Structure prediction request, 149 residues.
Amino acid sequence: MALARSMTPRDAYARSSVLEYLLIGDLRDLLEETPDNETRRWLLAVLEELINLLPNEFEYEDQGGYLAEVCEQNPNLSNTVERLHREHEGLYFSLLDLRNRIAEEQSFEFIADEVKPKLSRWIEAAQRHRASEQQLVVASYDTAFGGEG
Prediction:
């Protein structure tokens, strides 16, 4: 019998980041599919997983995650971290709205032309957000270790 080991916030964050990456890939693939009820069903399943994942990921970032380290090492970056928090929340609520729109409409074919571009823009925004987080961490460590930031 294998012993279950509890995950540190850093491990949990890494796991959720990988899962988010995979789910966004699935979402991107589903947007290429024929807009039918099967696609709608899978879209809703992927969106539901992302919606469940995003708040946890946000929590992991703060609890011993890299955003907590950024604020500890560079308090002057706290405004940038706060902006990223607001972006993260915005991404969550916009995805929730899109999921609700798809769930409310029985015919995905009817709303596909409306929803697919919005989901594509959401994917792009999520990727920009992730890149901004990574740039912040690099800038923080550059500053901490004598770089130019």
